[in-house]
Amino acid sequence: MLKPMLLAMATLVSCAPDAPPPPVAPPSPSSSPAMMEAPERPPRPAVDLIKFEPPAGWVKEEPANNMRKAQYKIPDKEKKGGDGQLAVFYFGNRNDMLNDNLKRWAQQMGHDDPKTEVIQGTCKIHLVDLKGTYTGDNQQGPQENQRMLAAVVEAEDGPWYFKITGPAETVGPWKDEVVKMLKTAGAAAKKE
Questions:
Q1: How far apart are CA 128 and CA 112, in angstroms?
Q2: Three-class DSSP category at 30
Q3: Dihedral Cα 83, 65, 140, 126, nearest 10 deg
Q4: Nearest 5°: phi and psi at 9?
Q5: pLDDT (tens digit, 9 = 90+) per residue, 93-107?
Q6: 3-state helix, strand, coil in the chain (%, to 5)
Q7: Which residue in 117, 123, 175 sits closest to 153, CA to CA?
């Protein structure tokens, strides 16, 4: 009988209005809002850009993401289809990715087995020239009547990937100048 009475009294005392609330532990550092956010991705290691001379009239742009080492707007010479774009990529000295990237890019144009032209310039170049519907830009969706000149330049520091995309009417007239640019691409230039 004594135990139930003591429990009842303890309950009444703990419910009294003048009883202080139990202490609240401060939030642990791991649960603070700042710590719950994704950490910032460290910047990619700086690499010297491969040396190449884009054709006159191409406009250098800020790369759209940190995978791109350089980016250029390619003007529509004949004012028929809109501007194109050159994106330059470098993934380190990894020759094992060369064919995989060319094949993946070809699939973005609806081609499964791209025919690769090998050109010798300052470095060995693998070039793929494709026409079709481009599906590689998730923001714009499929784009018909496009052309892609995809190239891998086997430079001393590893393969450099050049991906030129845009309306067929824009990219086509630039092909000879693109090949000339790729043939002279070579040793890394000093970082700008």
A1: 12
A2: helix
A3: 60
A4: -65, -40
A5: 887 888 888 899 999
A6: 25, 30, 45
A7: 123
- Name the pTM for this structure: 0.72
Residues whose CB is less than 8 angstroms from the CB of residue 57 and which lie 6 or more positions away in sequence, other chains included: 75, 77
CA distance 24 to 16: 19
User: Are residues 123 and 52 in contact, defined by beta-carbon separation less than 8 angstroms?
Assistant: no
Tokens of 102: 């060319």
As a whole number of angstroms, the distance between CA 156 and CA 28 comes to 51
- The structural domains of the chain, ordered by start, are 50-188 (3.40.1000.10)
3-state secondary structure of 110: coil
Please determine, for residue 111, whether its predicted confidence score (pLDDT) is greater than 80: yes
3-state secondary structure of 167: strand
